[in-house]
Amino acid sequence: MREPSTRYVLLGVLATGDAMTGFEIRSFIDQSVQFFWRESYGQIYPELKRLSEEGLIRAASARGRKRAAQPWRITPAGREALKRWLDRPAQAQPLRDETMLKLFFSRHASTAAARELLAAARGAAQARVAALENAERAVLADPDDPDLLSSLIVIDRGLRAARMMLEWCARADALRAAWDAGGSEALLRQWRRSQ
Amino acid sequence: MREPSTRYVLLGVLATGDAMTGFEIRSFIDQSVQFFWRESYGQIYPELKRLSEEGLIRAASARGRKRAAQPWRITPAGREALKRWLDRPAQAQPLRDETMLKLFFSRHASTAAARELLAAARGAAQARVAALENAERAVLADPDDPDLLSSLIVIDRGLRAARMMLEWCARADALRAAWDAGGSEALLRQWRRSQ
DNA sequence: ACCCCCATGTAAACGGTTACATGATTTC
DNA sequence: GAAATCATGTAACCGTTTACATGGGGGT
User: Fold this and answer.
1) What pLDDT sits at residue B1?
2) Using an 8 Å Cβ cutoff, are A73 and A60 in contact?
3) Could you give the count of Cα atoms lying within 13 Å of A151 in the half-sphere of its Cβ?
4) How close is the nearest chain B Cα to the Cα of A36, in Å?
């Protein structure tokens, strides 16, 4: 049995203290942890209902404007549940990277397709670096954010991952070029260099 | 609509040329691309049946020993389908990293729990480096493997990712220590250093 | 009056894992 | 002949995405 983590994302976001609607929670997720987590409304709304039935969150109806919007607030029981989850070791590292899969099988494709795959990976990594540098700037602009430490740790991870991808793309190009030029011997020579 | 990639993994493995049973395909996946892909029998067997109905693979019954085992061979149509898939750009970069999620919310946990999370991540990364260095040795021992280039590219990616994680763990520790010692000012000083 | 954004929700389909059942073959 | 390994398959369950339906509020 695997434990669903969706509920804990919701609790974690609400743990900041502010009452938020499902829509706002989703926006928050898209802004803060977008690079390693995503949630769809189809998950969020039913889960919020369940959480409130279990007493881990409660409706905080009174807001300035009267609306159909339903803001939620975390309860003490919710904070405890979140804490218990955080105390448990994390499971399930991310798996299933389609780019890697295609690259691994790329000798069955045209060389153009293989080059295309690497180029796309490079483009994605560059975009990611740019997005993360923006996020970094935004975080540094507000040094009193209680999430400052967490945000920086997470952004650092994202930046390192993206830059690693750029280096790896260059390396993959070099390996491929060596292979094209001189087969397995040249490839192995290239591999041993800067290893 | 998202495209299922399971079928193409099967085709990709069979494209090597050898006839293989579902069991052997799974073993091959576990040995070659285990770090970014996994398949379960519950996916493999029904999908093999479907592929054979579509004429992308065909049964290659006659093997030396008579068995319940059912080896499959890729057909020309299967190779074309694989190629078409490889020509399309890859979608869906891997998402949902529970470790990152917990770390992001870790200010709501005990400091012991946060340290524990990082320690586990470091341990996992070290194990991964060791496993990948073994894989590297195994690959280098057989320079005539037609998958040599792909394997090295993939191993390189895995090694870079794992080593990046080790560096990031150290950095995260340093950031956390700075925060504990001197709050956000010390944290920001530490952040700017070696940035 | 119209459009865009905010906002909630549901149903269907899908992909995937897990658990379970079963049995052949090899090796010791 | 027992144990380990090779091997196939299915059913149930679960989490997730997608598409669809609906409507209020603010701005132009």
Assistant:
1) 55
2) yes
3) 25
4) 5
